[in-house]
Amino acid sequence: MTHAVELRAVHKSFGRTPIINGVDLAVAPGERHAIIGPNGAGKSTLFNLISGRFAVTSGRILLNGEDITGREPQEINRRGLSRSFQITNIFPRLSVYENVRCAVLRSMGYGYSFWHRVGALERVRQRAAEILERIGLARRRDRAAGVLSYAEQRALEIGITIAGGADVILLDEPTAGMSHSETADAVELIRAVTRGKTLVMVEHDMGVVFGLADRISVLVYGKVLATGTPREIRASPAVQEAYLGTTVG
Amino acid sequence: MSSFLLRRLLLWGATAAVMIVLPLVFRQSFALSMLSQMGIAIIFALSYNMLLGQTGMLSFGHAVYYGLGAFVCAHTLNAVAAGRFALPVTLVPLVGGLAGFGFGIVFGYVTTKRSGTPFAMISLGIAEMVAACALMFPGFFGGEGGIATNRVVGEPWHGLTYGPQLQVYYLIAGYCLVCMIAMFALTQTPLGRMANAVRDNPERVRFVGYNPTLVRYLVFCLASFFAGIAGGLGTINYEIVTAENVGLVASGNVLVMTFVGGVGHFFGPVIGAVLVSFMQSALSSYTQAWLLYFGLFFVVMVLFAPGGIASLIMVHGPPLRHGLWPRLAPGYLAAGAALAVLLAGLIGLVEMIYHFERGEELGEAFELFGLEVDAGHAGSWLAAGVAVLLGLALLRPAICLVRRNWASVHAELHKVEAAA
Lengths: 249, 420
Description:
Chain A is of the alpha/beta class. Chain A has helices spanning 43-50, 73-78, 96-105, 122-134, 150-163, 180-193, 206-212, 230-235, 237-242; strands at 5-14, 17-27, 32-36, 58-63, 66-67, 81-83, 168-172, 198-202, 215-220, 223-228.
């Protein structure tokens, strides 16, 4: 079987400091996979490696069976992997609609065109409007993204991530900093927009993780300590000891 | 959508009409050459804003592409005059555009490798390099004297010789209109929209499938093309190109024009180009201190209206639409009066300093605002000083009033919006 995302013996050091110490990870197509672990375990670094933001020190990364090690982020994105960011990363001066539209254009094949009038691209317009509807920001369409509320910006972040129709979605702490009810909304949103797609997410909220994930990997000091279903992870003594002990009551 | 196109069509039609009518209203040769200069400046400033306002690239060397386009056009005209080949003068600005585009492809590749401050530094370096080349290659750049040329070459086409300035004006106006439309259309393309995205957040652009470096590079090449067209029109208009045209002063000038007009709106640089060209030719004939006033004006704009004149205009859109402008009037009247007093005093002081320092050439007594002013007389200094102090004293409460007026307008607009 071809995995949607596969990491083989991935290492990453910054200078002489190793951050990722030989991670092997395989995510099946259609799976919702959560990566958990204490602060500084290397979760965000792992995302930055998979999405091409950083280059690996050694090891290989495969996307749908294709080697993407050392590729530029935009190439990896075009091959069907899209990610969100832990710290909201949007286009603040563009309208909400334009934020989403920018994320749609490439996947519709318009690339760097300077001979199409963007307002006349009906498919692009429909797709962007549909995404806005799905993330619940249709009423905020013409607002500058920078003036949205925090929870709305987080929703837009997810909207930008899914707009291009990527089949592998990486979400980096999508509910960070949200209130209880906002988190519940965000979980529903994530569940809806990633239906039929492969999802890899970093998350601190254990309620979100156990509610959403099919499988969980525990990352500690740059190594995968355990991978398994939520039930297996809850039961694992090693995980209890290293990480969960106090968080899950 | 069709209403969008119709509005655009009306707007461009009105612009064209204004361009056609202007020289019929202002018939003096002085006005005609100023209008020609404005048309060139508009193209140049709009092309600069493709970099600064739309893609977030602060270039200190945009005149390189204007100037090189101008030099290539001068050589083209001279070659046509020498009979080496035939090309209608009408098409010569396009040669400038292609030259600008070509140099944009070469230099832009290096410049756009980086963004932010490194981009600004590289653009400065390339401007210095080209300025140095201007002295090293007198064959192409013509050394100190530059390259002189003659625009009346080749066969006249339907009576168009480009001898009279009016014909040159209409050539410039035609190119100006087409370039304005083309540059506006560019903002409405996928590349134009992604340029804004690159300006806002280049990192994120990579994760929606675009290479921000390539976006910058493409925009840079296209901006160089339009700068080159402006340069070609400059050659035809002035019939001389010198090393100054590629220099840092020229690059700084287009930056100032664009910024003063406003980088955040498409039409901002148009306002800036018109205003700065006007100041350069009109103000300089009134006073020797015009550069000082111009510098002061620029500093005040950067400090208090960083969005330029365009954004000052645009913030008044909502109050005007909702009929709230009478609420703004008292503050503006008060501030206008205070500013007038302050400015009168300042101008008096500056002019007196000039006349005092250079009394032998200019004479110490002169006329200002219809008043007899004598730089050798204490009374004049006292009056100007009092005007400055009075202006400053009045300005403070006037600005408070403007603020209060705006607060009430904002509150009202909020209510209207909440009701909608």
